[in-house]
Design goal:
Length: 108
């Protein structure tokens, strides 16, 4: 999604996740305004899960994030993120097919 601006597949796995919709909206706005994002992606380093009370499993994923360059819009300057280790927390629905219902970055 970040490299192409195509948000459909991301939204299809994250119905009911307001954080996910906000991220997708920002990416779409950036691409629609002539901006871009270029990243080498993420490498998963570690995953752990726990069962949440009645809300589906919670999964913490520690990743190595590649450096990223992006422009918010065509006329904006290129901004850079250095990359590094990040932990994301996902909550999945209990129904199948699995859907993300929450996504947040965990302070590390």
């Amino acid at each position: 999604m970040q490299n192409t601006g195509e948000i459909g597949p991301y939204l299809s796995i994250s119905r009911g996740c307001s954080d996910c919709r906000a991220i997708a909206k920002r990416v779409k706005s950036m691409f629609d305004s002539g901006g871009f994002a270029r990243t080498g992606g993420l490498t998963v380093l570690h995953m752990s899960s726990s069962e949440a009370w009645g809300n589906g499993p919670v999964i913490d994923v520690r990743v190595d994030s590649a450096p990223t360059a992006f422009k918010e819009r065509m006329s904006a300057p290129v901004q850079r993120l250095p990359g590094g280790t990040v932990v994301y927390r996902f909550r999945l629905s209990q129904s199948r097919p699995w859907q993300m219902t929450m996504l947040t970055q965990v302070p590390s």
